[in-house]
Amino acid sequence: MSLAAPARALIQPGAEEALILLKGVWKVFKMPSGTFEALKNINLSIRAGEFVSVTGKSGSGKSTLVNMITGIDRPTRGEVRVNGTLLNTLSEGALSVWRGHNLGIVFQFFQLLPMLSVLENVMLPMDFCNRYDPAERESRAMDLLKMVGLEKVAHKLPAALSGGQQQCAAIARALANDPPILVADEPTGNLDSRTAAHVMAIFTDLVAHGKTLVMVTHDLSLAQQAHRVLVISDGELIHPAIVATWPHLSHAAMRHLNRHLHDLRLPPGAELPPSRGVLVLEGSLQPGTTRPRPRLHLEPLAAGAWHLFERPEEAGHFRAGPEGAWVLRWDESAWERLRQDAPDVVTTLQSHRGGQA
Protein backbone atom coordinates (compact mmCIF):
# COMPACT_ATOMS: atom_id res chain seq x y z
CA MET A 1 0.00 0.00 0.00
CA SER A 2 1.55 3.29 -1.09
CA LEU A 3 0.66 6.53 0.65
CA ALA A 4 2.78 8.82 -1.49
CA ALA A 5 1.32 12.25 -0.80
CA PRO A 6 0.14 14.57 -3.57
CA ALA A 7 0.49 18.29 -3.07
CA ARG A 8 -1.20 19.26 0.17
CA ALA A 9 -4.62 20.86 0.06
CA LEU A 10 -5.55 23.91 2.06
CA ILE A 11 -5.76 24.26 5.80
CA GLN A 12 -7.06 27.78 6.21
CA PRO A 13 -5.22 30.29 8.42
CA GLY A 14 -6.51 30.03 11.97
CA ALA A 15 -7.07 26.29 11.63
CA GLU A 16 -6.61 25.97 15.38
CA GLU A 17 -9.99 27.73 15.69
CA ALA A 18 -11.73 25.39 13.27
CA LEU A 19 -14.94 23.62 14.20
CA ILE A 20 -14.04 20.83 11.75
CA LEU A 21 -10.40 19.93 11.16
CA LEU A 22 -8.93 17.13 9.03
CA LYS A 23 -5.15 16.70 9.07
CA GLY A 24 -3.34 14.34 6.72
CA VAL A 25 -6.40 12.13 6.22
CA TRP A 26 -6.10 9.08 3.99
CA LYS A 27 -8.77 6.46 3.41
CA VAL A 28 -7.68 3.23 1.76
CA PHE A 29 -10.15 0.45 1.00
CA LYS A 30 -8.98 -3.12 0.52
CA MET A 31 -10.47 -4.60 -2.64
CA PRO A 32 -10.25 -8.11 -4.14
CA SER A 33 -8.00 -6.64 -6.83
CA GLY A 34 -5.81 -4.69 -4.40
CA THR A 35 -6.19 -1.38 -2.57
CA PHE A 36 -8.14 1.74 -3.52
CA GLU A 37 -7.15 5.16 -2.20
CA ALA A 38 -10.47 6.99 -1.76
CA LEU A 39 -8.94 9.99 0.04
CA LYS A 40 -5.36 11.18 -0.34
CA ASN A 41 -3.73 13.44 2.23
CA ILE A 42 -6.78 15.60 2.93
CA ASN A 43 -6.12 18.75 4.98
CA LEU A 44 -9.17 20.88 5.63
CA SER A 45 -10.55 23.29 8.19
CA ILE A 46 -14.09 24.64 8.45
CA ARG A 47 -14.97 27.42 10.85
CA ALA A 48 -18.18 27.73 12.86
CA GLY A 49 -20.94 29.38 10.84
CA GLU A 50 -19.50 28.46 7.44
CA PHE A 51 -21.57 27.02 4.61
CA VAL A 52 -19.26 24.73 2.63
CA SER A 53 -20.24 22.72 -0.43
CA VAL A 54 -18.34 19.67 -1.66
CA THR A 55 -18.55 18.80 -5.33
CA GLY A 56 -16.87 16.37 -7.71
CA LYS A 57 -17.63 13.54 -10.10
CA SER A 58 -19.14 10.24 -8.97
CA GLY A 59 -16.50 8.18 -7.22
CA SER A 60 -14.27 11.20 -6.56
CA GLY A 61 -14.43 10.79 -2.77
CA LYS A 62 -17.16 13.28 -1.79
CA SER A 63 -19.23 10.92 0.35
CA THR A 64 -16.10 9.35 1.86
CA LEU A 65 -14.95 12.81 2.92
CA VAL A 66 -18.30 13.51 4.56
CA ASN A 67 -18.19 10.10 6.27
CA MET A 68 -14.95 11.19 7.92
CA ILE A 69 -16.66 14.27 9.36
CA THR A 70 -19.67 12.33 10.64
CA GLY A 71 -17.62 9.46 12.04
CA ILE A 72 -19.54 6.98 9.88
CA ASP A 73 -16.15 5.89 8.56
CA ARG A 74 -12.66 6.12 10.02
CA PRO A 75 -9.46 7.30 8.35
CA THR A 76 -6.72 4.84 7.48
CA ARG A 77 -4.27 7.52 8.52
CA GLY A 78 -4.56 11.07 9.84
CA GLU A 79 -6.76 12.93 12.33
CA VAL A 80 -10.38 14.07 12.27
CA ARG A 81 -11.34 16.57 14.97
CA VAL A 82 -14.91 17.90 15.10
CA ASN A 83 -16.19 20.36 17.70
CA GLY A 84 -13.15 19.67 19.85
CA THR A 85 -13.41 15.87 19.76
CA LEU A 86 -10.82 13.63 18.12
CA LEU A 87 -13.11 11.12 16.42
CA ASN A 88 -10.34 8.57 15.85
CA THR A 89 -10.27 7.77 19.57
CA LEU A 90 -13.99 7.07 20.09
CA SER A 91 -15.58 3.63 20.23
CA GLU A 92 -18.60 2.94 18.03
CA GLY A 93 -20.94 3.42 20.99
CA ALA A 94 -19.32 6.70 22.02
CA LEU A 95 -19.41 7.88 18.39
CA SER A 96 -23.13 7.22 18.22
CA VAL A 97 -23.78 9.29 21.33
CA TRP A 98 -21.42 12.04 20.17
CA ARG A 99 -23.10 12.15 16.77
CA GLY A 100 -26.53 12.55 18.33
CA HIS A 101 -25.47 15.68 20.19
CA ASN A 102 -23.18 17.32 17.61
CA LEU A 103 -24.46 16.49 14.12
CA GLY A 104 -27.63 16.64 12.13
CA ILE A 105 -27.45 14.52 8.97
CA VAL A 106 -29.69 14.97 5.93
CA PHE A 107 -29.60 12.13 3.38
CA GLN A 108 -30.54 12.03 -0.30
CA PHE A 109 -33.20 9.37 0.32
CA PHE A 110 -34.68 10.98 3.46
CA GLN A 111 -34.34 7.88 5.71
CA LEU A 112 -37.60 8.56 7.59
CA LEU A 113 -39.02 5.61 9.50
CA PRO A 114 -42.17 4.63 7.56
CA MET A 115 -44.16 3.32 10.55
CA LEU A 116 -43.81 6.57 12.54
CA SER A 117 -45.64 9.81 11.89
CA VAL A 118 -43.68 12.84 10.70
CA LEU A 119 -43.92 14.30 14.21
CA GLU A 120 -42.66 11.08 15.79
CA ASN A 121 -39.75 10.95 13.32
CA VAL A 122 -38.66 14.42 14.44
CA MET A 123 -39.02 13.51 18.12
CA LEU A 124 -36.95 10.33 17.78
CA PRO A 125 -33.46 11.91 18.07
CA MET A 126 -34.57 13.70 21.24
CA ASP A 127 -35.74 10.39 22.69
CA PHE A 128 -32.51 8.66 21.74
CA CYS A 129 -30.21 11.32 23.23
CA ASN A 130 -32.50 12.31 26.12
CA ARG A 131 -31.69 15.87 25.11
CA TYR A 132 -34.87 17.62 26.25
CA ASP A 133 -37.41 17.03 28.97
CA PRO A 134 -39.96 14.47 27.68
CA ALA A 135 -42.77 16.98 28.22
CA GLU A 136 -41.06 19.47 25.86
CA ARG A 137 -40.22 17.17 22.97
CA GLU A 138 -43.53 17.20 21.12
CA SER A 139 -43.84 20.99 21.19
CA ARG A 140 -40.23 21.37 20.07
CA ALA A 141 -40.78 18.93 17.21
CA MET A 142 -43.89 20.83 16.16
CA ASP A 143 -41.97 24.12 16.20
CA LEU A 144 -39.35 22.61 13.90
CA LEU A 145 -42.04 21.34 11.53
CA LYS A 146 -43.57 24.81 11.47
CA MET A 147 -40.18 26.21 10.56
CA VAL A 148 -40.04 24.00 7.44
CA GLY A 149 -43.75 24.45 6.63
CA LEU A 150 -45.02 20.98 7.63
CA GLU A 151 -47.12 21.61 10.74
CA LYS A 152 -50.32 20.63 8.87
CA VAL A 153 -48.99 17.16 8.00
CA ALA A 154 -47.30 16.44 11.34
CA HIS A 155 -49.49 13.43 12.12
CA LYS A 156 -49.28 11.80 8.68
CA LEU A 157 -46.98 8.94 7.76
CA PRO A 158 -44.02 9.78 5.50
CA ALA A 159 -45.55 7.85 2.59
CA ALA A 160 -48.36 10.43 2.44
CA LEU A 161 -45.91 13.25 1.79
CA SER A 162 -44.24 14.41 -1.41
CA GLY A 163 -40.50 13.98 -1.85
CA GLY A 164 -39.91 17.62 -1.04
CA GLN A 165 -42.01 17.43 2.10
CA GLN A 166 -40.14 14.32 3.22
CA GLN A 167 -36.82 16.10 2.78
CA CYS A 168 -38.09 19.07 4.80
CA ALA A 169 -39.17 16.62 7.50
CA ALA A 170 -35.67 15.12 7.42
CA ILE A 171 -34.19 18.60 7.92
CA ALA A 172 -36.47 19.16 10.92
CA ARG A 173 -35.37 15.81 12.33
CA ALA A 174 -31.69 16.74 11.79
CA LEU A 175 -32.28 19.87 13.91
CA ALA A 176 -34.07 18.05 16.73
CA ASN A 177 -31.16 18.16 19.19
CA ASP A 178 -29.99 21.62 18.08
CA PRO A 179 -26.62 20.39 16.75
CA PRO A 180 -23.98 22.96 15.80
CA ILE A 181 -23.23 21.14 12.52
CA LEU A 182 -25.47 19.98 9.68
CA VAL A 183 -24.18 17.58 7.04
CA ALA A 184 -26.27 17.12 3.89
CA ASP A 185 -25.33 14.43 1.35
CA GLU A 186 -26.99 15.23 -2.01
CA PRO A 187 -30.06 16.68 -0.21
CA THR A 188 -31.68 17.87 -3.45
CA GLY A 189 -30.75 14.85 -5.59
CA ASN A 190 -34.33 13.54 -5.74
CA LEU A 191 -36.13 16.89 -5.84
CA ASP A 192 -37.42 19.10 -8.64
CA SER A 193 -35.80 22.51 -9.08
CA ARG A 194 -38.53 24.44 -7.27
CA THR A 195 -38.45 22.18 -4.21
CA ALA A 196 -34.63 22.17 -4.27
CA ALA A 197 -34.70 25.98 -4.14
CA HIS A 198 -36.99 25.79 -1.08
CA VAL A 199 -34.59 23.40 0.67
CA MET A 200 -31.65 25.67 -0.15
CA ALA A 201 -33.54 28.65 1.28
CA ILE A 202 -33.98 26.72 4.54
CA PHE A 203 -30.27 25.90 4.60
CA THR A 204 -29.28 29.52 3.95
CA ASP A 205 -31.51 30.70 6.79
CA LEU A 206 -30.04 28.11 9.17
CA VAL A 207 -26.51 29.29 8.34
CA ALA A 208 -27.59 32.89 8.87
CA HIS A 209 -28.66 31.85 12.37
CA GLY A 210 -25.28 30.32 13.20
CA LYS A 211 -25.38 26.71 11.99
CA THR A 212 -22.38 25.23 10.20
CA LEU A 213 -23.37 23.38 7.03
CA VAL A 214 -21.41 20.93 4.89
CA MET A 215 -23.30 19.95 1.74
CA VAL A 216 -22.35 17.40 -0.91
CA THR A 217 -23.87 18.12 -4.30
CA HIS A 218 -23.41 17.41 -8.01
CA ASP A 219 -25.26 20.65 -8.85
CA LEU A 220 -22.70 23.41 -9.38
CA SER A 221 -25.36 26.15 -9.25
CA LEU A 222 -26.36 24.97 -5.77
CA ALA A 223 -22.75 24.51 -4.70
CA GLN A 224 -21.96 28.11 -5.59
CA GLN A 225 -24.53 29.35 -3.07
CA ALA A 226 -22.17 28.25 -0.30
CA HIS A 227 -19.50 30.45 1.26
CA ARG A 228 -16.84 28.11 -0.06
CA VAL A 229 -16.82 25.44 -2.79
CA LEU A 230 -14.55 22.44 -2.29
CA VAL A 231 -13.74 20.35 -5.35
CA ILE A 232 -12.53 16.80 -4.81
CA SER A 233 -11.03 14.87 -7.71
CA ASP A 234 -9.69 11.34 -7.60
CA GLY A 235 -9.52 11.53 -3.80
CA GLU A 236 -7.59 14.81 -3.78
CA LEU A 237 -8.97 18.06 -2.40
CA ILE A 238 -8.24 20.84 -4.88
CA HIS A 239 -6.93 24.08 -3.45
CA PRO A 240 -9.87 26.55 -3.32
CA ALA A 241 -7.78 29.27 -4.97
CA ILE A 242 -7.27 27.03 -8.00
CA VAL A 243 -11.03 26.46 -8.24
CA ALA A 244 -11.75 30.19 -7.95
CA THR A 245 -9.03 31.31 -10.38
CA TRP A 246 -9.46 28.71 -13.14
CA PRO A 247 -13.09 27.50 -12.82
CA HIS A 248 -13.27 26.69 -16.54
CA LEU A 249 -10.62 23.96 -16.25
CA SER A 250 -11.57 20.31 -15.99
CA HIS A 251 -11.19 18.65 -12.61
CA ALA A 252 -8.29 16.62 -14.02
CA ALA A 253 -6.52 19.84 -15.04
CA MET A 254 -7.16 21.34 -11.60
CA ARG A 255 -5.68 18.22 -10.07
CA HIS A 256 -2.48 18.69 -12.06
CA LEU A 257 -2.22 22.30 -10.88
CA ASN A 258 -2.88 21.18 -7.32
CA ARG A 259 0.08 18.81 -7.46
CA HIS A 260 2.57 21.36 -8.82
CA LEU A 261 1.75 24.67 -7.11
CA HIS A 262 3.44 25.27 -3.75
CA ASP A 263 2.58 27.90 -1.18
CA LEU A 264 4.97 30.49 0.21
CA ARG A 265 4.58 33.23 2.79
CA LEU A 266 6.63 36.40 2.26
CA PRO A 267 7.19 39.01 4.98
CA PRO A 268 6.74 42.70 4.03
CA GLY A 269 9.28 43.79 1.44
CA ALA A 270 10.62 40.29 0.78
CA GLU A 271 11.63 39.46 -2.80
CA LEU A 272 9.70 36.81 -4.71
CA PRO A 273 12.09 33.91 -5.46
CA PRO A 274 12.71 32.91 -9.09
CA SER A 275 9.40 31.52 -10.32
CA ARG A 276 7.65 30.61 -13.57
CA GLY A 277 4.26 31.66 -12.23
CA VAL A 278 2.54 33.03 -9.13
CA LEU A 279 -0.98 33.30 -7.73
CA VAL A 280 -1.51 35.77 -4.87
CA LEU A 281 -3.71 34.40 -2.07
CA GLU A 282 -3.39 37.24 0.45
CA GLY A 283 -1.61 40.57 0.56
CA SER A 284 0.04 41.89 -2.59
CA LEU A 285 3.16 41.84 -4.72
CA GLN A 286 4.60 45.19 -5.79
CA PRO A 287 7.01 45.71 -8.73
CA GLY A 288 10.43 47.11 -7.87
CA THR A 289 12.04 50.12 -9.50
CA THR A 290 14.24 48.11 -11.88
CA ARG A 291 13.02 46.06 -14.81
CA PRO A 292 14.45 42.80 -16.22
CA ARG A 293 13.95 44.25 -19.69
CA PRO A 294 13.65 47.97 -20.47
CA ARG A 295 10.19 47.73 -22.05
CA LEU A 296 8.72 45.18 -19.62
CA HIS A 297 5.74 46.73 -17.85
CA LEU A 298 4.95 45.23 -14.46
CA GLU A 299 1.70 45.90 -12.62
CA PRO A 300 1.07 45.29 -8.89
CA LEU A 301 -0.50 41.91 -8.17
CA ALA A 302 -3.31 42.04 -5.60
CA ALA A 303 -5.00 39.10 -3.88
CA GLY A 304 -6.63 36.90 -6.53
CA ALA A 305 -4.24 37.95 -9.30
CA TRP A 306 -1.95 35.53 -11.12
CA HIS A 307 0.92 35.98 -13.54
CA LEU A 308 3.28 33.84 -15.62
CA PHE A 309 6.89 34.92 -16.16
CA GLU A 310 8.77 34.30 -19.38
CA ARG A 311 11.94 33.77 -17.38
CA PRO A 312 12.15 32.73 -13.70
CA GLU A 313 14.46 35.62 -12.77
CA GLU A 314 11.75 38.14 -13.73
CA ALA A 315 9.88 37.15 -10.55
CA GLY A 316 12.66 38.76 -8.50
CA HIS A 317 11.45 42.19 -9.56
CA PHE A 318 8.38 41.74 -7.34
CA ARG A 319 8.39 42.25 -3.58
CA ALA A 320 5.74 41.63 -0.97
CA GLY A 321 3.65 44.68 -0.14
CA PRO A 322 3.56 46.36 3.30
CA GLU A 323 1.18 43.68 4.63
CA GLY A 324 3.31 40.81 3.31
CA ALA A 325 2.06 38.20 0.85
CA TRP A 326 0.86 34.61 0.79
CA VAL A 327 1.27 33.08 -2.68
CA LEU A 328 1.09 29.86 -4.66
CA ARG A 329 3.98 29.55 -7.11
CA TRP A 330 5.71 27.33 -9.61
CA ASP A 331 9.46 27.17 -9.44
CA GLU A 332 11.32 26.03 -12.56
CA SER A 333 11.30 22.34 -11.66
CA ALA A 334 7.57 22.33 -10.80
CA TRP A 335 6.79 24.13 -14.07
CA GLU A 336 8.76 21.56 -16.07
CA ARG A 337 6.98 18.69 -14.31
CA LEU A 338 3.64 20.33 -15.11
CA ARG A 339 4.72 20.73 -18.73
CA GLN A 340 5.53 17.01 -18.91
CA ASP A 341 2.43 15.81 -17.02
CA ALA A 342 -0.16 18.17 -18.53
CA PRO A 343 1.07 20.10 -21.59
CA ASP A 344 -2.50 21.11 -22.44
CA VAL A 345 -2.80 22.88 -19.06
CA VAL A 346 0.45 24.76 -19.70
CA THR A 347 -0.80 25.82 -23.14
CA THR A 348 -4.07 27.07 -21.62
CA LEU A 349 -2.22 29.11 -18.99
CA GLN A 350 0.20 30.57 -21.50
CA SER A 351 -2.66 31.74 -23.71
CA HIS A 352 -3.63 34.18 -20.94
CA ARG A 353 -0.37 34.60 -18.94
CA GLY A 354 -2.21 36.39 -16.13
CA GLY A 355 -5.48 37.64 -14.78
CA GLN A 356 -7.72 38.14 -11.75
CA ALA A 357 -9.94 35.54 -10.08
UniProtKB/TrEMBL annotation:
The keyword Transmembrane does not apply. Residues 20-259 form the ABC transporter domain. One of its GO terms (molecular function) is ATP binding. The keyword Nucleotide-binding applies. Pfam families: ABC_tran (PF00005). SUPFAM superfamilies: P-loop containing nucleoside triphosphate hydrolases. Keywords: ATP-binding, Nucleotide-binding, Transport. Coiled coil: none annotated. PANTHER family: ABC TRANSPORTER ABCH.1, IMPORT ATP-BINDING PROTEIN. This is ABC transporter ATP-binding protein. It comes from Thermanaerothrix solaris. The lineage of its organism: Bacteria, Bacillati, Chloroflexota, Anaerolineae, Anaerolineales.
